[in-house]
Design a protein that fits this description.
single chain; alpha/beta; 7-stranded mixed beta sheet; 14 helices; 15% strand; globular; binds pyridoxal-5'-phosphate
């Protein structure tokens, strides 16, 4: 978190610990703090404050959008369109709906990880209720043609949700221009606290709430608000908006320094989705003849925190669904590293990675019989 974010949150744990639903001044003070945060989050994505629903994070926002629309509009039909490279919060939600009798069209993506809007046009049916396509991918950073998809959805009069967890705060987002009806955001991706997020719900959109209870958030998300988290989210959103241009330029510079430097120092590496429009902070690098887990652990020992393109689920190591969807083999997917930078990183930190990673790759390649043959 940015230090200003934790500083803004502290009073909500002590002197300003009111419940925003209480009528007394103490509660109303907390309500004012929540309203201010709502204003900042709305401004970051060009929404109206009344279109922001606070909830527990990106996962809940994706669930609320998809299940909420599905439940409220199932009389129209039971068909959803999505892509193969969505975050698990969307992927598993759609899979769950499939088990409940919904039909899902899983759109393929290009080798650069992009959805083709024409494929969406072709997939639309009279019973299509929702299109859900993420704005930017969390593993490879590719930015989807959301505005074009938004126009198609609007023409066909179909609800359109986009997971904006990765894009918000890294690139300019205008929900009106993008023509999305629902847009998910998470505070911890913009230097805010974990466990808080928001769903943009365009005015006039009907969706069934996930939670029933006291009718908070205009009957959209019951439960006493996480005031401190929301206040931190608001502060983070304000700072993300104010710093967007300069910080994304800085992230891009650092990312390019990392990629150019690694390509110059290490043979047989590739930047995944390099030629696509990407977020300024994400770099997914495939290292031939080196095993991803080994790279992550060796970097960790050197104080560098990165992830692989693979996710470990229930004890078995599955290759990343994103990397296999863009045509990588399971071996290639296992040899991929994901670097996520932010504007607080420094050129010195990037140079440190450039210094330590070549030696790590050399050492791991020594263990590869295939590399020796090459
Ligand atoms: N969607 C995307 C694209 C993400 O990257 C993430 C988190 O990494 C989520 C959804 C889930 O957000 P949260 O961790 O706030 O539940």
């Amino acid at each position: 978190m940015r230090p200003e974010v934790s500083a803004a949150m502290l009073p909500a744990f002590s002197e300003d610990f009111g419940n925003p639903s209480s009528i007394h001044w103490f509660g109303q003070q907390a309500k004012t703090m929540v309203d201010q945060a709502r204003h900042h989050v709305a401004r970051l994505i060009h929404a109206e404050p009344s279109e922001i629903v606070f909830l527990s994070g990106g996962t809940e926002a994706d669930n609320m959008a998809i299940r909420g629309i599905a439940d409220a509009h199932k009389s129209k039909g039971r068909h959803i369109i999505t892509s193969r490279i969505e975050h698990h919060a969307v992927l598993h939600t759609c899979k769950d709906l499939e088990k409940q009798g919904w039909e899902v069209t899983w759109l393929e993506v290009s080798r650069d990880g992009l959805v083709n809007p024409d494929d969406i046009r072709k997939a639309i049916r009279p019973d299509t209720v929702l299109i859900t396509v993420m704005h930017a991918n969390n593993e490879i950073g590719t930015v989807q043609p959301i505005e074009e998809i938004g126009n198609i959805a609007e023409e066909a009069d179909i609800y359109f949700h986009s997971d904006g967890v990765q894009s918000t705060g890294k690139i300019a987002v205008d929900v009106k221009k993008l023509k999305v009806d629902l847009y998910s955001i998470s505070a911890h991706k913009i230097h805010g606290p974990k466990g808080v997020g928001a769903l943009f719900v365009r005015k006039g959109t009907t969706l069934k709430p996930l939670l029933t209870g006291g009718g908070h958030e205009r009957n959209r998300r019951s439960g006493t608000e996480n005031v401190a988290g929301i206040v931190g989210f608001g502060q983070a959103a304000k700072m993300a908006r104010e710093g967007l241009e300069s910080e994304s330029a800085l992230m891009r510079q650092l990312r390019d320094r990392l990629e150019t430097g690694l390509k110059a120092r290490i043979p047989l590496i590739h930047i995944n989705a390099e030629s696509a429009l990407r977020l300024p902070n994400t770099s997914n690098i495939m290292v031939d003849y080196a095993e991803g887990e080994g790279l992550v652990i060796s970097l960790d020992l050197k104080g560098v925190a990165v992830s692989t393109g693979s996710a470990c689920s229930s004890g078995s190591l599955e290759p990343s669904h994103v990397l296999t969807a863009i045509g990588k083999t399971p071996d290639e997917a296992h040899g991929s590293l994901r670097f996520s930078l932010n504007a607080m990183n420094t050129a010195e930190e990037v140079d440190y990675v450039l210094e330590v990673l070549p030696g790590i790759v050399d050492r791991l390649r020594e263990l590869s019989p295939f590399y020796k043959r090459v």
